[in-house]
Input
Amino acid sequence: MSVRLRPSGAGTDRPVLVLALVAVLVAAVGAIWLVQAALGGRPAYRTVQVDNRAALALQVAAVGGGGRLGLGLAAPRATTAFHEAVDLGTTWTFVFSYGGQEVERQRVSGRELADRGWTVQVPETATAELERQGYR
Output
């Protein structure tokens, strides 16, 4: 009778080693990404006011810096403040709509908007055609 010894299993299992290396690599990339995000700073936030002189409540969105920011509903014939709006940078384009239909679009530089106290004005005539059609 002969005795055969089996390996103890203490050897390196290649698939486990590959998975461990991939996990370490993913963790390292994630850590680098988190450090960059922390060092990059937080975006600036603004309170944007909409002086809606039109007779209808309008949905307000701002476009700029590669993104679109839905601000909310501006009350009719009132000034509505939208707090903590992300600063979109050098150029802001405000889009005012009613029922999904765009009624006014204004492009304003960030500097001009700051000079106006972060207030944009919707003219009274912006919804005139809709009012003629009976919208209230």
Remarks:
- The CA atoms of residues 44 and 109 lie 16 Å apart.
- The beta strands are 45-52, 58-64, 67-74, 78-86, 91-98, 101-109, 119-122.
- The chain has a mean pLDDT of 87.
- The first strand starts at residue 45 and ends at 52.
